[in-house]
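ok trying again, last paste got cut off:
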Amino acid sequence: MSKKFAVLGSPISHSLSPQIHNAAFAALGLHHSYDRFDLAQGLNRFVSTDGASFAGFSVTMPLKDEALALSDTADELAQATKSVNTLLRSDAGWLGFNTDVLGFRAATAEMSFESVSVLGTGATARSALVAFSGMPVKIWGRDGAKAAALAEQFHAEQTELDSALEGNLVVSTLPKGALGELVGQRELPGCLFDVVYADWPTAGSEAFASSISGLELLLHQALYQQRIFAFGEPHSALDNEATVFAAMRTAVEMAE
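nice, full thing came through this time. structure:
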């Protein structure tokens, strides 16, 4: 039986999620569909009206907090981050998941680094703080009060921007264009993991010795979403998962 899925958020027209997930469904031999809807608020109303026939959703900004509130059951990572980016309809109501944490970990699994800096204080920053909680983590945000609160909540160290930018791995969850303004003409020694993936490389990424595009986060967290769509949880591997992931990456490369 075919099922319908979609990504929700605003702005959403740039999202590559439809290409990624439709490629995964095709590789799995499924006749499911995946669309996008621009939605800035009113998630609860949407899922019971226009989205009533959909089996699940990917959720991006600014709806991750609303998605948590909507969830009848939230997984451990969603509870830890207070953020849901995946919703699955079930007989028991909406199941909420956070695959960003898993995506961060998978995208950096083969890397070696001793310290992490997180730039930003939003939902994705919370996911990064949880993802790298097993090592020394610093956080910087324009809103010092929010950064201080997150530092306390996630046992991180609030720091000044200059110190944060010197981290081995610098995870930027800032909006597009913001990082370039902050780094200016500096030459920074670490590796940047930027959640931004449009117009890559960016002015901000070129200041670092090496960088990882947000496409890596997008692809890896989407693979976990595919597992959720298939099995109702993110830890069971798909059939021919390597082939599925390759198809997802090819879809991104063709869309760029």
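cool. The chain has eleven helices and twelve strands. Residues 119 and 172 are 5 Å apart (CA to CA).
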